[in-house]
Amino acid sequence: MDNRLVLVKCVTLLYRESLVTTKSENSADLIRSILETIRLPEVVVNYNKEKDILTALKKIVLEMVENPIDFEYEKTNLLQTLKGICVDDSSTYDLFIQGIDTELSEASLKRTIVNIRKTLHNHFREKKVEEILTKSTNDFRFKRDSIRNVHTWISELCSQLEPFQIGAVGKDPAIVSEVDIANTSQTAIVFEEIKNMENGTSLLKTGWQEFNRMLQGGFRRGEEIMVGALQHKYKTGWTLSLFSQIAMYNKPMMIDISKKPLLLRISFEDDLTNNFKFLYEYLRNHEKRDNPDTYNPEASTDKDEIAAYIKQRLQVTGYEIKFMRVNPSEWTYMHVCNKITELEAEGYEIHLLMLDYLAMLPTTGCTIGPSGTDMRDMYRRIRNFCSPRKITIITPHQLSTEAKQLIRDGRQNFVKEVEGKGYLAGCKQLDQELDLELYIHIEKFQGTYYLTVQRGKHRGVAVLEDEYKYFALPFPKKGPILEDIGRANSAVRKLGGAPIGSGGEETPFWEFGNNTI
Questions:
Q1: Exposed, middle or buried by CB within 10 Å (0-12, 13-18, 19+), for 386?
Q2: pTM above 0.85, yes or no
């Protein structure tokens, strides 16, 4: 679009927005961004004074964007100013007359504003794509020696272009859901989802009764959950335990019954051999817990037997299971999204994505700004990609050195001290992007080790009493912490205290919290 036409539309838009009866916003930020893309001609040709006209029009637009939202323009005065600028360019002035002088109804005014906004927004997107491609082409052609890895360079280019992939036609992929209440079938689908939430059938239940109480039934589909802890404080063991519990205690509730339900775990740190060793010992300890003397983990060495056993235990409810080990230096968040898309194309419906752990990925392609901005943006992008697909994300995250200082200072109740206070490595405001934040830590009391668990924010759930936002699980003398579904509640409220429950009875979902969803 010609620069003069762009500036005409900017002036027209700001003027038309000032005429709206109820003013809550305008397009000043969009127009400021567009002005940065307008380059004035360096060489003035002939008598049309193109550079002078563009410079004057750009100055007018800059003055208009600085005006407050409730500023009222005097049309005659504005047109006189524009005519003075366009004295030798009658065609441009005619465009101003068409855009400003015509009287419009409120409805027509709003439609005009929306249409101009879309036009300018698309123009801005195209100019940014042009800038990215021009720079990348020049770098590849003339600065080839500076590109150390072509695959990484291509990945970074794709990441920069990713925000501009939305087409100009068809359904807007940013719209996650839409309901017309005149269409009763659409409304019925929403209430079916509410029903599934209330009766717990769409939740991902864990193997610990007290944890399910804390979660008010279990993990919601589409949530992004962070498990914060210091180094070597059972993050991998805890999340691997949760992974196996979700597989064993939840029957897949499908959105598309033609798909295959999948639980996916991607490790950016530990080898799969370590993960499978833990899983095998965890599952065997659980199976032999009533007769521990009959199980010797060191005696089980047959790899085929181990593989068949893990497959049989984890697929008992019908879930497909996939584990991946990825070098984080070679991936970005885009690769995670691409892998999900690839699996969906293969016929899978992913219910759980466990990333161990997301913060290890480089933030290539994410928004750059003050410290931690790129990390927040990466978490946001992964959530925005997975949430519409109802994919639950669970990822451990390292706590900061400030949190470690609390240990040195001898502070008690560590998980309660760090909850909600931004003690997160790489970004203190990361919790703002999460649906659920959890904190775990290993404490020793009177010779017994405990895993303490504290819940932070949990977006979109009922109010929960503070006493249910904390519990601790004692470690056995050897082996991992085992689940207590179908048994006495093994959690404690106070280190050294008696277990919370007995008799193996579980609290019904609808009794969690002060009220229901």
A1: buried
A2: no
